[in-house]
Write a structure and sequence with these properties.
This protein is an all-alpha fold and about 220 residues long. It is built from ten helices and no strands.
Length: about 220
């Protein structure tokens, strides 16, 4: 019961702090919206061309928005000493960072998911394809959050670590990008997408299971420096 209460307390605290700093929510969302809306304007109104590039554009925009939001995951807690107290607390650190990553996903990725159907319409995607796009993002964005959290935990003690963070996590983002965009493209062609969805689900299970341990170890190293 104490562990569950601590988990919920960290989750509630991070969500509350995020809503007090609304730019952490709106900046990734605005970036995602601008990227996806500017491509149809720049390329032209050809429906066939827009449907062809839509999977890649949606997923690249989501990936970059996740990377943009990730840098703030542990930064403020490290600067004000909260992160050190979390490391020293008697509760399992891996569980506490899971709560922080979940809160980060709720405030950064869920608004993006809600906006995706509206943006997908501008590419001429039909309803079943939009449903698959939402499902791939629902499975893939938590993986991006957990993988990004590993990179942030490794670099949180460094100043101006944005470029290093990108170099660390972008190669790990690529499999999610490939299977997510391929699922949307396959759905647009009217073919089954079970294989891609199963792989994304497997990545999610691995991320939820293993990433918190890696994040906790990386935070202990960063805090001890």
């Amino acid at each position: 019961m104490h562990i569950a209460k601590a988990f919920l307390s960290v989750l509630k605290r991070d969500v509350t702090v995020a809503f007090r700093h609304r730019n952490e929510i709106f900046n990734p969302l605005l970036f995602f919206s601008l990227v996806t809306l500017l491509f149809p304007l720049g390329i032209g109104p050809s429906p066939k061309l827009l449907q062809t590039i839509a999977p890649g554009i949606l997923w690249v925009a989501a990936l970059l928005a996740a990377l943009l939001a990730a840098d703030n995951l542990f930064r403020s807690d490290y600067e004000d000493g909260t992160l050190e107290q979390l490391v020293l607390s008697p509760q399992p650190l891996s569980l506490m960072v899971t709560a922080k990553v979940l809160a980060h996903w709720l405030v950064s990725a869920v608004p993006l998911l809600l906006l995706t159907p509206l943006l997908a319409v501008s590419f001429g995607l039909d309803a079943p394809t939009i449903g698959v796009a939402l499902l791939t993002l629902l499975l893939g964005t938590p993986v991006l959050s957990f993988v990004g959290a590993i990179g942030v935990a490794l670099t949180v003690s460094l100043k101006r670590s944005g470029m290093l963070l990108a170099l660390l996590v972008l190669p790990l983002y690529v499999p999610v990008l490939i299977f997510g965009s391929n699922a949307i493209d396959t759905a647009a062609s009217g073919l089954p997408v079970n294989g891609q969805l199963y792989l994304l689900a497997a990545m999610l299970v691995l991320a939820v299971t293993l990433a918190p341990l890696a994040i906790a170890a990386a935070l202990k190293m960063s805090v001890s420096q």
